[in-house]
Each structure stands twice: as C-alpha cells, then as structure tokens.
Amino acid sequence: MSITANPLFGISITVIVYAVMISLQKRYKRVHPLFMTSIVIILLLMSLHIPVENYQQGGSWLTFILGPATIALGVPIYKHADQIRRSWKSILSGITVGAVCGLLSTGAIVLLMGGTSEMAWTLMPKSATTPISMEVSRMYGGYPELTAVLTVLTGLMGSMMGPSLLRLCGITDETAIGVAIGTTSHGIGTARVLKDSEWMGAVSGFSMGLTGIWVSVFAMPLAWLWN
C-alpha cells in the first residue's frame, strides 16, 4: 500500500501544515491559517500527483471531528445564556433579517444576472452550515456539491474580512458583530470572533444555529412562490 494511502498521511500533513500556518500568523497577522492550509494542501496534492482519494483516507477522520467541534461552540452559548436572554429581541430580529435578506438578495442577484433557478438554489442557502445548505439545495433542485464548496468559501471570506469590514463601516458593538458573523459565516466565522471575545463567539454561535433553522423554514415559502 502506498504511504499516501495510509490514513496517517492525510492527518499528519493537515496537522503539520496547519501548525506552520498558526506559527506564521503570529508573525504576519494577515495570514489566515485555515485558508492558507487549504491552499498549501491543494498545491501539494497537485504537484506530487497524489490522488485526493488517498488524502481523504485520513482527511475524513478530521472531517468527522467537525461534529464534536461544532457542538463545542455551544459552551460559550451556555455560559452567556442569561445575557443572550436579556438581549433576545435584538439578537433574534438581527438573525431573522439577515437570514431572509441572505436568501432573497442572493436569489435576486443570480436571476438578474441570467442564472437559472437551479443555480439560484445552489447559492441561496450558503449562509447556513454545510449539512443544512446542502440539503436545502438538494430539496429545491440545486447542486449540493457546489453548494458545499460555496458554503465553505462564504465562511472563509466572512472570517477573513467580516470583522474588519464591519468595523470599517463603524459597527463596533460586539453583539451586532456576533450576529452578523454567525448569520453569514457559520462555524468558521464563529471560531474567528471567538478569539476576540467569548461574548461575540456566544452570539455568533447562537446566530449560526438559528440561521440554519431559518434558512430551512423560509426556503419553503420561497420555493412555493417561485413555482
């Protein structure tokens, strides 16, 4: 059996590259570890002609850990549950408006640019977490595999530029930033703001969970009106 087909290969290369990127980020603040790790691994597999199936032998183990890691985002929500309850009106309204606007604006842009309904449904659920966005895409005629890629890219872009862009627009309130990032950039964005503030991470994690529900719920009447 080739060494690249060993599950330890995929795990080792991912952990090593990510550790290097974390070290680089300490010196160069603009380096995004997750984004750069993805780029380096893709280039490595392409340059060494390593089949992605071989890498996935170990990569799938890391993917499995995403489940417990996502659940762990509930810890700051639990710790700040009382504070979230006190601000539930503003948080809930922000999540609702964000989820609805995300669906409507994305669908409208795709259709105005001449895209098909299939492509619209591929893009529209990208603000939800990957499992939910893929299922919504599949239910209404989109391309779930492409939806998964776009959902991850949305999370990456939001985590890289979201907090800075919001502050550039004069939005400095931690609750508002948490809602905005959680509603648009799901787990990747939540992990990013959690580094800055546990409260922002709690609000973002709560927003991420509720956005997944809202996208699923609001997609139904949209599909009915569309047809």
TrEMBL record:
Key words of the record: Membrane, Transmembrane, Transmembrane helix
InterPro entries, per the entry: CidB/LrgB
Coiled-coil zones: none
Membrane topology: Multi-pass membrane protein
Cellular location(s): Membrane
GO cellular component annotations of the record: membrane
Entry's transmembrane regions: 6-24, 31-52, 58-78, 90-114, 146-166, 202-226
Secretion signal span: none
One Pfam family cited in the UniProt record for this chain: LrgB
Name of the protein described by the UniProt record: LrgA-associated membrane protein LrgB
Organism of provenance: Paenibacillus pini JCM 16418
